[in-house]
Amino acid sequence: MTEPVRQRRSCGGVLGTLLVVGAVIVGTVALSPSLALTDLRDAAIDPIVGVPGSGGDGYTFMATTPRGTPVTWPCDGTIELEVNAQDAPEGYAELVASAVAQVNDASGFVLEVVGETDDREYQERGAGPVLLMWADESEVPELAGRTAGIGGSSYVQGPGGGGRAVGGMVVLDTDMPGGLLRRTDPGPVLVHELLHVIGLGHTEDPSQLMAPEYSSQRGLGDGDLAGLQALRDAACS
Ligand SMILES: [Zn+2]
User: Fold this and answer.
1) Which InterPro entries match (predicted)?
2) What is the average pLDDT score of the chain?
């Protein structure tokens, strides 16, 4: 469970921007068949989603382990994604495929849509497929106001101090204030949320896609790419 982030920037031309929010949903101690998932509410009250000071130039990590390494997915294997198409926009399958391809190309990780689901449990995600769904703020209060989406991973942490992602979720807002979604390509918002799932937090650099506000960034910036490389290095080292 997390709190939404409503960080506003005092730059002009705010119209057309969408707030995109990341959420680390759960962390836990592993080595138990039943994952004792705990709440990271404290980590998300901070207006910066991610670990301040982690990462490098133009990027942060969503979560870090006691060793100081970023939490991300295993080097090998696929990250399974299940889609709940309830209230999804027309053409959502193409949107998802396009976003997944972009994330895979940029990250080296392999997200794969494995099917559709009726599951709408976005808070208590344990190990298993990453859930992608659409909702409004009546169901997902984190989507209130200008928030366009939320995303994050659940992860396990071992006694040796390592950690790895084992599940997660992305929820995209069906109800953009002022019809912003109709005027703004939702693809970048989905990519942004999927990068939270992979392990990137927010950056203060507004030119990066992982900035907390979407302001017509085109594709991934140098900081986004460097962050993904760092996650890949951590996963495969
Ligand atoms: Zn975000």
Assistant:
1) MetalloPept_cat_dom_sf, Pept_M10_metallopeptidase
2) 78
Terminal CA-CA length for the chain: 31
Domains present along the chain, CATH in parentheses: 20-231 (3.40.390.10)
For 182-212, what is each residue's pLDDT tens digit? Answer: 445 667 888 989 999 999 999 989 899 998 8
pLDDT tens per residue across span 30-50? 322 222 222 222 223 334 488
Backbone angles phi, psi at 30, to 5 degrees: -90, -155
Which of 110, 201, 117, 186 has its CA nearest to residue 149?
186
> pLDDT band at residue 222, thresholds of 50, 70 and 90?
very high
Q: Cα(152) to centroid of ligand 1, in Å?
A: 9
CA 137 to centroid of ligand 1, rounded, Å: 17
Burial of residue 155 (number of CB atoms within 10 Å: 0-12, 13-18, 19+): buried
* Distance from the alpha carbon of residue 117 to the mean position of ligand 1, in angstroms: 24
Ligand 1: centre distance to CA 21 (Å) = 4
